[in-house]
Amino acid sequence: MTVLTAKSAGAHYVALGHGNASRDASGKTSIESALATIMAHGDAEQDRAFPTTFEPFADAVSTISIGDLEFENTDRGMTISGQQAIVPGSAMHHTIIAILQKALAAFAAPDRATDENATITKVASPFA
To answer: Is residue 9 situated within a structural domain?
Structure first.
C-alpha cells in the first residue's frame, strides 16, 4: 500500500491509497524529469526532508496531497500539481525530492498485490 507520513512541529500527515501506474520506461522518464527540475531549483541535500515512504510503482498507488500540492500516479508516470510555493532548500523542497527519489527506487522493487480497500486520509498537513 502506498504510504506517506510526515511530522513537523507536532503536525502529522498520513496518506494511504490505491490506483494504477505504469512501471515502464516512460513512467521512469517522467519521474527523472520531475526530479531533475526540482533539484535544479535549490539545494538537494536530504537532511531536512520529512521522513517519507512512498512506493508509487509497486501496484498499489495513489494521489497524495500535501497542502494544495498533489502527487498523482498516472499511466503517464507521476504528475505534480498545485498552487503551493516551494521554497528552495525548505523542508517541503527536500521532501518532494525524497519522494521522487523513492519513486525512482520503486522501479526496481518487486510487484506487490493490489489493496482495493486502501484510502487516502489526511491527519493534518505539516505545511499548514
So the answer is: yes
Q: Give 64-94 pLDDT, tens digit per residue.
A: 554 455 666 554 445 555 555 566 777 667 7
Query: Per-residue DSSP letters for 30-91?
Result: HHHHHHHHHHTTS----TTSPP----TTSS---EEEETTEEEEEETTEEEEE-S----TTSH
DSSP calls for 105-117 = HGGGSPP----TT
One-letter identity of residue 119? T
| Domain assignment present for 123 | no
The Cα-based distances of 16 to 2, 33, 37, 40 in angstroms read: 5, 25, 26, 29
Q: What is the reported pTM?
A: 0.48
Structural domain boundaries, residue 62: 2-108
Distance CA 95, CA 107 (A): 19
Residue pair 82/75 in contact (Cβ under 8 Å)? The answer is no
- Per DSSP, the three-state class of 119 is coil
